[in-house]
Write a structure and sequence with these properties.
Length: about 150
Amino acid sequence: MAEDGSVFVARDDDHLVAYDRYGNRMWSGDFVGNNDFVSSPALFPLGSTAFSVYVPTRARMYKVNAGNGALFEEQPVVYPTHASPAVTWDRVYLGNASGMLSMDLFLGDLQTDSTIEVAGVSPAVGADGTVYVVSMAGDLIAYRNPKEL
């Protein structure tokens, strides 16, 4: 939820929809043919009134303008995921079948830690910027310098 009360919903029919705090539809982005949205979007910066929405589908990560739904950037993520992304001040993180993914805020500089299995596991960001994820084996993994996965 944004500071102004707006809410963003990713639907499995290829639509990303924005609602204002009263429940009125502000816009609906149609991403037909992009393998459906499968998780909740993440906002950056959190609580801001000028921000981006990051949302994955089964095959891509999208960065969308929160004000009007226009597509800013997209990045193939190769393997499907049901995880929600996590966003820090300089990176976007996502767990999928290939491991823990990290990319810059423009969805470039894609890095993967394929040493852990985190398919469908959503990462979390601590107050100090450490990125945490629980592996499929149940281990808590902490990336203290998450730029270097």
